[in-house]
User: Fold this.
Amino acid sequence: MSKRLFLSVLCLSPGMVLAQASEIDLPDVSPAATATVAAQPVPVPGSYQVFVGRVGSVDCQRWTVGATSADGELQSTCGGYTSHLSVDGHCNLHKITDATGAPLVVFEPWYPVVQFPLAVGQRWEQPYTGYLAQESLRWDGRIKCEVADFGAVEVAAGSLEAFRIECYDKQKVGMMETGATLTVWYAPAVPGVVKTLHYEDARWNSELADYGPR
Assistant:
């Protein structure tokens, strides 16, 4: 049940922008949820995550955390693949390479779907460039995200408390502009993104099936 708030005067900015008497719908978010804040996690080498679906569009499921490289990238491996997460970039994905070191997917400087510290209501916007080797595709993107909620999400690994992050990714390839809508869930207890739902391209979808240590 949503709560309704009746306002006669609403101060929106230091410039005293005023609204007439109105009725505003407010989401029913518990005080505990709004008070929850997640700091950037400290990686644990040897920990692992297993996914249903693809990770960063790459068809490999069990990823094991390794070392942090000298250039500040946390590396995880799955089969012959290596993911590179930018530590300075809130542990977002920078690239995934194959066994030869060739890039399969690249985001410069990273793909900004998480920004720490996480809290309900937090928003961010950031440009990036993307590359997908499978299609020899390069594009310019600008992503806007908002932390919409904190609560239980059901994934293959079970029920987890997670931040739900809603994003819109505006993309441009040459003169053509398009966009994509996606939702990601970040669970501090894992820690990591435990579900990704891309509404336009299912190859980016995944959900957590197992992880450790617990």
About this structure: The chain has one domain: 32-212. The chain is about 0% helix and 55% strand.
